[in-house]
Amino acid sequence: xxxxxxxxxxxxxxxxxxxxxxxxxxxxxxxxxxxxxxxxxxxxxxxxxxxxxxxxxxxxxxxxxxxxxxxxxxxxxxxxxxxxxxxxxxxxxxxxxxxxxxxx
Amino acid sequence: xxxxxxxxxxxxxxxxxxxxxxxxxxxxxxxxxxxxxxxxxxxxxxxxxxxxxxxxxxxxxxxxxxxxxxxxxxxxxxxxxxxxxxxxxxxxxxxxxxxxxxxxxxxxxxxxxxxxxxxxxxxxxxxxxxxxxxxxxxxxxxxxxxxxxxxxxxxxxxxxxxxxxxxxxxxxxxxxxxxxxxxxxxxxxxxxxxxxxxxxxxxxxxxxxxxxxxxxxxxxxxxxxxxxxxxxxxxxxxxxxxxxxxxxxxxxxxxxxxxxxxxxxxxxxxxxxxxxxxxxxxxxxxxxxxxxxxxxxxxxxxxxxxxxxxxxxxxxxxxxxxxxxxxxxxxxxxxxxxxxxxxxxxxxxxxxxxxxxxxxxxxxxxxxxxxxxxxxxxxxxxxxxxxxxxxxxxxxxxx
Lengths: 104, 399
Hints:
- The complex is a heterodimer of chains A (about 100) and B (about 400).
- Chain A has three helices and five strands, in the order ββαβαβαβ.
- Chain A has about 100 residues and is an alpha/beta fold.
- A five-stranded mixed β-sheet of chain A has the order 1-2-3-4-5.
- In chain A, α2 links the parallel β3 and β4.
- Chain B is of the alpha/beta class.
- In chain B, the strands form three sheets. Chain B has a six-stranded mixed β-sheet with strand order 12-11-14-15-6-16. A five-stranded parallel β-sheet of chain B has the order 2-1-3-4-5, sandwiched between helices.
- The radius of gyration of chain B is 32 Å and the shape is elongated.
- The chains are: A alpha/beta (about 100), B alpha/beta (about 400).
- At the A-B interface, α2 and α3 of A face loops of B.
């Protein structure tokens, strides 16, 4: 998986690309650290270019969420496509995250 | 006062090989003076090989020029022998012949000391070689111990899966054909499945997967398995059962670790399957008339947050089949990065309408094998349960 981040006041947008699996643990750990150090009140994972996620990827999103909530920020999953949208729906992630169709 | 690691080095066994007796005595005295307690000698290469085979020294100090078998040949022979090949060899070379060193390294020497020997230099080289040798041996021992532990953990894990005898009993009692295969990837994992009689006319079947890989995932799987056994008062009520299991897992759940579970109860009186699920891949129902449907397994995985799980219910009569599978079936990529779709698997099942559970299982396995020819990255579990009207029942398990 690759990612990039943009930061505007009050919102951090993290665009995820490619496949998000257990091999991305180290990469994603630094994302979680960034979230922990941030000040913004909203963290958006833009999933438009994310092609695939497995259960380890879901677990890491949950980790990011709990880290954000420690400093009272909320997390949105935006624009999931294909398999990713299917997995979010199967796992009822909409009941623990805000899942939105676009990243705006 | 010597440190424990210095003690360890001085208790190493040293084999000194030199044809010149004066030189041998000099070396032995130097080593004994340095504190080495186990020093043995040999006067040529072939005598050295015999002694090495008997005593397995930790280090060989080897002269190059000797009668019968010289040092080069001795090095090569040691390196070819699997029992001796890891022993470091310190060769003694003449002052001027640098090509001796090159040839000695090519023959398998680990390091060299030039003659005339300066005892301090010899001791320093020996110490560094033996330190390396001991830490390598520690690492090897550690790896071997971990491998043995992981192997017994894998055996424990397969022990919580139903064995052939249990499936045979279940098949008899509930008039089912049951076929199952569990193909384990090399790692420990969080997958398991099972079946249990609740009442003479009712049985439960489940498939679970704890997220992640390795030891943590396997330990979590054991925890869920234990909770499932101790929550038997709710075992006939799938939704309440999952709700309770989730409550039990939550206090100890580590963030990011969760379980998907399908849990179904087949009732032969009402001819229905009641089930609840927490986000696992949807089992496929194959009807007696060839119709297929995917069960609704949408649900928050267990261990994430408090949640209430509903019980779903579908007709499940004689001739109907349920096919359970772990996510490896639909999450393994082929060479082009494509996945096997649930619709492909469903179509394969539909083509097997009327066939035995074993035949259905074989068809799906063949489809999977054609899709993925690499090593498994995740455990693959496939379970086919088909209700039959009359005996003979049939059972098949393969592992």
